[in-house]
Write a structure and sequence with these properties.
The complex is a heterodimer of chains A (626) and B (123).
Chain A lengths: L5 E6 L21 E3 L2 H16 L8 E6 L4 E8 L2 E5 L8 E2 L2 E3 L5 E3 L1 H5 L8 E2 L14 H6 L3 E4 L5 E5 L4 E4 H20 L3 E8 L5 H13 L3 E7 H10 L6 E8 L4 E9 L2 E10 L4 H20 L7 H17 L5 E12 L2 E10 H7 L1 H5 L2 H10 L9 E5 L6 H11 L12 H14 L6 E3 L36 E6 L7 H45 L5 H20 L2 H24 L35
Parallel strand pairs in A: 3-13, 13-14, 15-20, 17-21
Antiparallel strand pairs in A: 1-2, 1-22, 3-4, 4-5, 4-6, 7-8, 7-9, 10-11, 11-12, 15-16, 16-17, 18-19
Chain B lengths: L8 H15 L1 E2 L2 E2 L1 H4 L8 H15 L9 H15 L2 H10 L4 H5 L20
Antiparallel strand pairs in B: 1-2
Helix pairs in contact in B: 1-4, 3-4
GO molecular function (chain A): ATP binding; ATP-dependent protein folding chaperone
Organism (chain A): Heracleum sosnowskyi
Pfam family, one (chain A): HSP70
Chain lengths: 626, 123
């Protein structure tokens, strides 16, 4: 099923003009809505029955909250009744949402993928969130801005081309790789298996973007218990320990999207009053302005278009991001890009300065675009700016002074700075995860989903149901209570069989990954054993009885041979055998002043060689030069 | 407090209350004040407090018991209506209740002597 068709039968709210209304047991304001989307209603039903069957049984398993960001991601979990950030394997609190494939087919995720982007631009996938659940025609602009190739598949959906392994990926698959790493790292950090999560999306994500995000979770082998909106998550983290009534405005400018939500918080109830945003606006766009500026002046000076050179473009983008960040604290940033390209005259460099004022000028229209969503969200909430108690800034891009300036001029308030804009969403997702796991009892979230209809109705039930941008055929129907059909088609989500294929593929890859890692670890360990043993033999010299030495050397040679052959299980076995001999050696030394070496030789590997089912032949990619 | 040892008894009672009041018709309209366990003269703040209390008991994330979800939807519907000044006064007009109090500024105590919040039905 390439596209979803949602049929919504709704009876017009007939409250004021038509007092002879019949009771409606469900829905809001006399609006009874039923979904006949097979795709979104089926899982929902299944879910409901699950909940009923296992009701009140609190699983011991940890549920984590994941902020799957455009540029960076973060994971939170409830620890000791409080949400905390889970650090990744590299010890960082956020992980770049970047996946790369090297020329020999190795997959890299996170910081190591980001680091090699310059030398591998076509196979390094970043800002994938801009493409998830989208049709190609919706993302023409975005497709031009990335260094990898974005192509259109037969269904008009977006695919990301990866020449290194000759494959086209769905954005879901790339996001799944990021999710996989986040969850694996979280399992290690928490020392617990993690298979369930709450994942956040921009409030302005539509149904297919949400479904696609859920699919990404599934491909990663993760059960996504709930998709919640990023600004709402931020409010959960902010209001988690506050008990007083407050009306807050969350201003969330992330890497690729912009959301504004107005919430009323009090007595543990988080009620979203309105939400607004711009899915095509984020920190990346600010970087792009700097890139374009640099490229244009270089073109004027040298006559070369750097934007056509993928590697140069990648370097420009990285430098632009760095300059943008510097301009949050400094009034000017130095930009230095030696050897950016070469002509017949020799190498060319970029050496320039960007002032904060110039940067703000370059981005002035982007800054203008921040205003409308703020005004709309206040209007939809039927509030004026004086009703807002706190303004919460979320997303790294809210560190830009000009952005803060816009917020201040719009709201007349100094924004709240008690939350970390990079972490607050993941922390809030962790709070919701805690609610679902039964760890957090006194908090409940009432959210609206501005564009979506199907997916979010479970649990996040307070949907205003009629989606904002859907045009309702209202002619002749005012107050008539007549049944109407709206058909929404063209959802850009993956067909379910394709998702299944991706799930099994990902499982296979994860097994291969594990084996590969095991192979590398084993080999390194073996190398170290060889070195240690040789060193010991050398140091001990004549003290070692000849027969013992012979045995050790024999096993040592065997191990060296095994390492060159590179069969993991054989290396493991030989290493165990060698270890046995070395132990014997120790024993013989210990017993030397007196008795002869004890028990005549070990019977080779015994309990140490666990021939597991995964004793398959694996080629380690790394070969040491001997 | 009835049978403190039975888990979730107050949730169950709240669910039943909501359904009873939802069946209660005033001028053909559902008794939305009753659904939220408040009086028509209560201020918006009082109604909000009662709504929140009910939501914490009935929300599907908190309560899997059968009927709780239906009650939650009714409570949400009631709040959707009564938290909107325009809709609330229209509703009050139809149910011909206390028109004058709510036409001006419902939650402002200075307009008329706002009556003390009546005890809510269900704690």
């Amino acid at each position: 099923m390439a596209s979803t068709a949602a049929q919504i039968h709704l009876i017009r709210p007939s409250f004021a003009p038509n007092p002879t209304r019949t009771t409606s047991k469900s829905g809001f304001f006399g609006t009874s809505v039923s979904f006949t989307t097979p795709k979104s209603s089926l899982p929902r039903l299944r879910k409901c029955s699950n909940r009923r069957n296992h009701s009140l049984r609190v699983a011991a398993e940890k549920v984590v909250g994941i902020d799957l960001g455009t540029t960076n991601s973060a994971v939170g979990a409830m620890e000791g009744g409080k949400p905390v950030i889970v650090t990744n394997a590299e010890g960082q609190r956020t992980t770049p949402s970047v996946v790369a494939y090297t020329k020999n087919g190795d997959r890299l995720v996170g910081q190591i993928a980001k680091r090699q982007a310059v030398v591998n631009p076509e196979n390094t996938f970043f800002s994938v969130k801009r493409f998830i659940g989208r049709k190609m025609i919706e993302v023409d602009e975005e497709a031009k801005q990335v260094s990898y190739n974005v192509v259109r598949d037969d269904n008009g959906n977006v695919k990301l081309d990866c020449p290194a392994i000759g494959k086209q990926f769905a954005a879901e698959e790339i996001s799944a790789q990021v999710l996989r790493k986040l969850v694996d790292d979280a399992s290690k950090f928490l020392n617990e298996k993690v298979s369930k999560a709450v994942v956040t999306v921009p409030a302005y994500f539509n149904d297919s973007q949400r479904t696609a995000t859920k699919d990404a979770g599934r491909i990663a082998g993760l059960e996504v218990l709930r998709i919640i909106n990023e600004p709402t998550a931020a409010s959960l983290a902010y209001g988690f320990e506050r008990k007083n009534n407050e009306t807050i405005l969350v201003f969330d400018l992330g890497g690729g999207t912009f959301d504004v939500s107005v919430l009323e918080v009090g007595d543990g109830v988080f009620e979203v009053l309105s939400t607004s945003g711009d899915t095509h606006l984020g920190g990346d766009d600010f970087d792009k302005r700097i890139v374009d500026w640099l490229a244009l002046s270089f073109k004027n000076d040298e006559g070369i278009d750097l934007l056509k050179d993928k590697q140069a473009l990648q370097r420009l983008t990285e430098t632009a991001e760095k300059a943008k960040m510097e301009l949050s604290t400094l009034t000017q940033a130095n930009i230095s890009l030696p050897f950016i390209t070469a002509t017949a005259d020799g190498p060319k460099h970029i050496e320039t300065t960007l002032t904060r004022a110039k940067f703000e000028e370059l981005c002035s229209d982007l800054l203008d675009r921040l205003k409308t969503p703020v005004q709309n969200s206040l209007r939809d909430a039927k509030l004026s700016i004086s009703d807002i108690d706190e303004v919460i800034l979320v997303g790294g891009s809210t560190r830009i002074p000009a952005v803060q300036g816009v917020v201040k001029s719009l709201t007349g308030k100094d924004p709240n700075v008690t939350v970390n804009p990079d972490e607050v969403v993941a922390l809030g997702a962790a709070v919701q995860a805690g609610v679902l796991a039964g760890d957090v009892s006194d908090i409940v979230l009432l959210d609206v989903t501005p564009l979506s209809i199907g997916l979010e109705t479970l649990g996040g039930v307070m949907t205003k149901i009629i989606p904002r941008n859907t045009t309702l055929p209202t002619s002749k129907s005012e107050g008539s209570g007549k049944k109407q059909d709206i058909t929404i088609t063209g959802a850009s989500t993956l067909p379910s069989d394709e998702v299944e294929r991706m799930v099994s593929e990902a499982e296979r890859f994860s097994k291969e990954d594990k084996e590969k890692r095991d192979a590398i670890d084993t080999k390194n360990q073996a190398d170290s054993v060889v070195y240690q043993t040789e060193k010991q033999l050398k140091e001990l010299g004549e003290k070692v009885p000849a027969e013992v030495k012979e045995k050790v050397e024999a096993k040592l040679e065997e191990l060296k041979k095994a390492i060159t052959e590179g069969v993991t299980q054989v290396i493991k076995d030989t290493m165990a055998a060698l270890n046995q001999e070395v132990m014997q050696l120790g024993q013989s030394l210990y017993n030397q002043p007196g008795a002869t070496p004890g028990a005549g030789g070990a019977d080779g590997p015994s309990e140490a060689s666990n021939k597991g089912p995964e004793g398959d032949v694996i080629d380690a990619d790394f070969t040491d030069s001997k | 407090s009835l049978y403190p040892r039975i888990d979730g008894i107050s949730q169950l009672l709240a669910t039943i209350d909501v359904f009873i009041y939802a069946d209660n018709k005033i001028n053909g309209e559902v008794d939305w004040y009753g659904v939220l366990g408040v009086n028509p003269l209560d201020t918006e703040d009082v109604i909000r407090k009662s709504f929140r209390k009910l939501v914490l008991m009935l929300h599907p994330d908190k309560n899997n018991a059968s009927g709780a979800n239906g009650a939650f939807l009714l409570v949400s519907e009631a709040w959707e209506l009564l938290s909107d000044k325009t809709k609330r006064s229209a509703y009050d007009r139809i149910t011909s209740l206390h028109r004058s109090q709510h036409n001006v500024q419902p939650q402002c105590a200075s307009t008329t002597a706002a009556p003390p919040p009546a005890p809510a039905q269900n704690g």
